[in-house]
Amino acid sequence: MKNNKTILIMIDAVRPDYITQEYTPFLYDFSQKNTFLKLETLLGYSSGIHPSIYSGYYQDKTEKFVVFNYDPENSIFKWTKWLRLIPTAFLRKFFIAVCKVPYYYFPKKYRRFLPRFFRESIIKVPPSIPLEILPYFNMGSVKKRIRTIYDYFKENDISYTSVATARNEFFEDVQELDKLALTDALVDSFYIYEPDGYGHHYGANSQEIKEIMSKIDTKISELYTEAYHKYEHVDIFMFSDHGMYNVEKFLDIQTPLKVAGLQQPRDYIAFFDTTFARFWPKNDEIEKKIIQILEEIDGVRYLDDTLLKRYHLDFKDKQKFGKIMASVEWWIRQFPDYFSPVKNTIKWLHGTFPEYEWSYGVFMTNAFTVDDECMKVVNIMPSILKVMWLEHTLHADIDGKPVF
Ligand SMILES: [Zn+2]
């Protein structure tokens, strides 16, 4: 094994069409000579997709999905009940906004020394959430430990490193893109965050995306060339988690509910993510009413039992993420939602249905070949383990399987 090297690189939000001869010559050449697949993502966000990539389980088994979950008992936002003492909704929001200001003036490096309460609660209050709803929610998803590819490495005495260019729960270290380097471990695992941030900000077709992809291409080319000269055998796996699409239409889901006479928190509790709308109705009658309203809004798909099963969002505990769930269709973003106080802040998105053309990510490797053109995210981990002769150690209940 000493003469083997395995390199895993996840690059956030890279679409197949980002790989071009002009801007990513190394990856382009690699994709011509090796396995280059479209990657079918999941209905959800990175907060749920990453756990599925590294564990091989769908979101309804990892129970990691959206960032905010229903949990009035343990909510880290319980203290916001006291904000009722401030007379108007506007002043309450203004107070929270002012509290957040010092954080952004604090040098990034030292922010972790700020009080925990500040870092883990005040700073995480979504800017547009009604403060009377907030104490019903908790964040950081559900504290469930899942078995990831790194556990398999540990159990099989495979040395590895994991370094990311932004904080991520699956990676031990944070390092700048330029500084990513190989080590003596058998596996070096990297997560490159930048294309996601650049994509949201500048768009998938922007010059900025081309430039950052070019930098990433150079970095990966260096890592691969170094490994190629040092080791007898190098397996490299490069993949993203989802694509990115342009928002062409804004859709208000909250007004139709108000027009129908439904009110929070009296009749229901809801969380409006950018692409999801999730509800906890007070009774069956209200539940029916909400579903009926959702079904009548053009551009919204209510996730009934069939769709929940199809997209592997059939959670055992229906309370945790939403008793009723709906997603907007492609091209659409909710406005208002609970995250953005201003309409045009983010014009590029991901998080809607995976079968849409621009939702796809990529998967590239030199370790195996397949006839298919497409691969599913849950199959990444089992495929990597098979290449490393660890397929027999995979848990029997795992959703993914090797693709070759
Ligand atoms: Zn993103």
Descriptive account of the structure:
The protein is 30% helix and 19% strand. The protein has 404 residues and is of the alpha/beta class. It folds into 2 domains: 4-64 and 146-244 and 357-393, 3-Layer(aba) Sandwich (Alkaline Phosphatase, subunit A); 68-141 and 248-345, no CATH class. The strands form 5 sheets. Strands 6-5-7-1-8-17-2-18 form an 8-stranded mixed beta sheet, sandwiched between helices. The protein has a 4-stranded antiparallel beta sheet with strand order 11-12-14-13. A two-stranded antiparallel sheet has the order 3-4. A hairpin with a 3-residue loop joins strand 11 and strand 12 (276-281). Helix 7 (194-202) packs antiparallel against helix 8 (207-230). The two termini are 22 Å apart. The mean pLDDT is 92.
